[in-house]
Amino acid sequence: MSTTDPVRRRRARSRVRPGTVVLGALLAAGALLTAFPFLWMIFGSVKPRSESVAYPPQLLPQEPTFEFFVELFTKLDFGRYLVNTLLIVAICMVGLLLMAAAGYGFAKFSFPGRDVLFFLVLVTMMIPGQVTMIPSYLILNGLDLTNTLIGIALPMLVSGFSVFLFRQFMTTIPDEVIEAARMDGAGEWRIFLRIVLPMSGPILAVQVVLTFIAGWNSFLWPLIIANDQRLYTLSVGLSLLNQQIATNPALQMAASTLMVVPILVVFVVFQRYIVQGFALSGLK
After folding, report:
1. SS (H, E, C) 149-160
2. What is d(CA 112, CA 278) in angstroms, rounded to the nearest whole number?
3. For residues 178 and 237, is the Cβ–Cβ distance under 8 A?
4. CA pair distance 49, 63, nearest whole angstrom
5. What pLDDT sits at residue 128?
6. Which residue, 178, 207, 200, is CA-closest to 280?
7. Which residues of the chain have pLDDT under 50?
8. Which residues of 114-152 are buried (b: 16+ CB within 10 A; e: fewer)?
């Protein structure tokens, strides 16, 4: 190793501006302050009940235990709620292909009324979901889909915002690639599945995260359309838990951890695609 390397490193460290150090310290303090409630929830979920109600409270558990996670799945119905939530998320994921196909059609095809239809898609983004709940309930009730997982997931199957994101991203795909595939004899569905979707990896990752969050956190609509408690989702089960068992903070923290940690895991897995997907889709 050259003897000048340590000298260069010392000079580089000496050129660090004090303002940069102060800014880094402020950002670190802000991140720690923001993460403190999450850390309190994680540590509180593994505390014995005696420690969770102790005063003054302590952040770190003295005798960690996972008994309350076990209780959620053995004595309570959180196993059923988890399965229901995963099934709803799986059904919502099917909508990704539908929204991607719609975005591809708006981006690469010219047909009469395309701009009007896309304008109607954009209009749906301006309508609050609470406004459409009653009409959606009446439609699903007429189809005998109330008290079913399909009825819970169906209104979340597609969204105007997702179609808009797909359309914005797919306009960046070169037309020459699609035309070359057509000249080679590829059909439209083959072009879509074998060429367009693989090239749309970043925006697909964004949509996977958004769809997972929407399905995983679904609360109000499952509570409205499902009268059977066996069809409740995790968020509805957590709400019932807070109403029924208000004297066991550790159990509530365990249920909250079960709700939050999977979302963080999905976000961490796809985070490197999220900024890229939004950037390429033209959003600021």
Report:
1. HHHHHHHHCCCH
2. 29
3. no
4. 11
5. 83
6. 200
7. 1, 282-284
8. eeeebeebeeeeeeeeeeeeeebbeebeeeebbebbebb
- State residue 231's pLDDT score: 86
Domains and CATH numbers, the chain: 4-65 (no CATH), 68-280 (1.10.3720.10)
Per-position DSSP letters for 123-164, written without gaps between them: HHTTS-TTTTHHHHHHHHHHTT-TTSHHHHHGGGS--HHHHH
Helix (H) or strand (E) holding 172: none
155-158 long-range Cβ contacts below 8 angstroms, 24+ apart: 155/221, 156/88, 156/92, 156/95, 156/214, 156/215, 156/218, 156/221, 157/91, 157/92, 157/94, 157/95, 157/98, 158/95, 158/98, 158/99, 158/102
> How many CB atoms lie under 10 A from the CB of residue 55?
5
Q: So what's the pLDDT on residue 283? A: 47
Q: What is the pLDDT of residues 168-177, one digit of tens each?
A: 888 888 888 8
pTM of the model: 0.78
Give the integer Cα–Cα distance in Å for 134 and 225. 10
Q: Of 268, 278, 284, 259, nearest to 89 (Cα)? A: 259
Nearest CA among 79, 230, 100, 97 for reference residue 152: 230
Where are the alpha helices (H) located in 46-75, listed in sequence order? 49-52, 67-74
Per-residue confidence (pLDDT) for residue 11, from 0 to 100: 57
Cα separation, 32 vs 30, in Å, equals: 5
Residue in the block written with tokens 């994921």: 93
Distances, alpha carbon 209 to alpha carbons 102, 126, 162, 204, 247, in Å = 19, 22, 11, 9, 34
Q: Which amino acid is it at 255? A: A
Please report where in the chains the tokens 């304008």 appear, as a residue.
119
